[in-house]
Structure formats: C-alpha cells, structure tokens
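lol ok so funny story. i was supposed to be doing the assay writeup but got distracted and ended up predicting the structure for this chain instead. priorities right. anyway since i did it might as well share w the group, maybe its usefull for someone
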Amino acid sequence: MKIDPEGVRPIEPEPVGPTEPTPADKVEGAEPAEAPPEADRVSLSARAQEVQLARDALAKLAPVRQEKVNALRQAVQDGVYEVDAEQLADDMLKESGT
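and the output, tada:
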C-alpha cells in the first residue's frame, strides 16, 4: 500500500484556554506549573460518516434467508417460477400508499 503525502493533512489541536491558578501558583517564588497537554482530536470525513450510516442501516435489516434465495434462484433457472401479475400490481399499489 502506498501512502500519498499530498492527501495527508495535519490534525489541528483545539485551543486550550487558561486554567484556574493552583495554590502553588499563588506562592511567591514558586515556579509556574506546566501547561496541561493538549488533548488529541479525531474527526471523520464526510465519506467515513456515510459509510458508518450505511453500516448502521445494514445492521438493522433482517438477515438474508439464504435457503429461500437459493430455492427461488433454482426455480427461475428451471423455468418454473411464476409471478402472479395481479398480486404483484396490488402489492406495488399498497407499497406506494395509493
């Protein structure tokens, strides 16, 4: 796998505001405490968010009944699968809300 350095962008840290002084900060002659380390931040691209939404939607679907799929595939290949056109039309109308 090759990494394209042109597509890599540095992550900009979020600015950290001033902190409350500690008792050590108030003591004369005491050295100031180190600033707290900046927190890491991760952000997902729009494409990654779309992929996550698709995965979530797929996880909510009913599992595929592979044995039924195989039986229907075989019936079509054998030429014995028949469609009731009237029932299909009724189902389509019900699905569309008409």
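The helical segments are 23-26, 46-60, 66-78, 85-96. The radius of gyration is 31 Å.
back to the writeup now i swear
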